[in-house]
Amino acid sequence: MSSLPPLPYKNWADTKDTLHLFLQMIGKVRLKAHPKLNHWWHVTLYPHVRGLTTGRIPYGDSGFEILYDMLDHKVIIGRNDGVRKSFSVSGLTVAAFYEALFSRLDDLEVPVKIVGKPYDNKSTVPFPEDHAPRAYDRQAVSDFWRALCRISSTFETYRTSFVGKQTPVQLYWHSFDLVVTRFSGRAHPLEGGTQSDKEAYSHEVISIGFWPGDDSFQEPAFYGYAYPEPVEMNQIALQPGNAFWAEKNGGALAILKYEDARNADDPAKEILSFLNSLYEGAAVKADWPLVDLKHRSL
Fold it and tell me: Coil, strand, or helix at residue 178?
């Protein structure tokens, strides 16, 4: 039996859209309340033993945390002094989730105000006005969390061989992908793009991640890319053999389908072979100092 649960996109696409909007609201709270960090690291969510969490967010002389529990399907907001508020999410509309989240924050005397509309999402309806019924398959959400837990462990193993600057394992709630990004240490400011793009791509990176699929690519997959993209990056030989190169936004994107990894004898080994082949090949082509960046004690 695979250590990864099945995640057929078409079976939970509507639930995924619901979950994505719920998590955007939580992520926007962290964006608003947390001190700013480089490359937008202050906006992300993190895998938790029961779901996804903001981690501790400093607030005045205290702090708070928002946990989206994907086993009991509730949101729990806790302060440093132990006071907590919670609410169940099953069956809620986006507007009802918004009201429940911010009324609990007010009850806890954490009156955070966000831009109350989706960001870079196919829904453009402001959160407080979105009263449409929403699908919520509890089992699918729990399966997604179980996949994130296993993938996060593999991504943590991937992180251990690198001594340079790199992100934690973190989920970007706008694009809904779990990411680890490595930096060469060399600046390479992005020309053009939005202010957020310029902040994200101020330095050379090689980034890997997992996303659960969307309408343009209707299955979950692992991916990798480099910025700036080295010449002939799509000629790098990827591992395992069923990994392949695709094109996204005019650039080369390495892909390993989740289902191919899930059906392997050792899914974690299969994923690591993909991540390492992408990183090593891209780093060579981009002339990164591989020896200096390698953890020598491993």
Answer: strand
Residue 2's pLDDT is what? 65
By C-alpha distance, which of 83, 55, 67 is closest to 22? 67
Phi, psi of 16 (to 5 degrees): -60, -40
Helix H or strand E encompassing 104: helix 94-107
What is the rounded distance in angstroms from the CA atom of residue 279 to the CA atom of residue 161? 11
* pLDDT value for 1: 43
Bridge partners (DSSP) of residue 57 are 64
C-alpha of 240 from chain center: 23
Length of the chain: 298
DSSP tag of 123: -
Q: How far is CA 144 from CA 14, 70, 137, in A?
A: 13, 9, 11
Residue type present at position 79 = R
Contact between 75 and 68 under an 8 Å Cβ cutoff? The reply is yes
Encode pLDDT of 51-93 as tens digits: 999 999 999 889 999 999 999 999 999 999 999 999 999 999 9
DSSP letter at 242 equals T
Amino acid in position 67: L
Neighbours of 263 (CB within 10 A): 14
Task: Name the stretches of the chain with pLDDT < 50.
Answer: 1
Position 121 scores a pLDDT of 93
Q: Which residues contact 180 (CB under 8 A, 6 or more apart)?
A: 155, 158, 159, 166, 167, 168, 169, 170, 207, 208, 209
Number of H helices, E strands in the chain: 7, 12
**Encoding tokens for residue 204?**
């050379």
C-alpha–C-alpha distance, residues 244 and 60, integer Å:
48
pLDDT digits (tens, 9 = 90+) for 86-125: 999 999 999 999 999 999 999 999 999 999 999 989 999 9
- CB neighbourhood size of 111 (10 A): 8
Mean pLDDT of the chain: 95
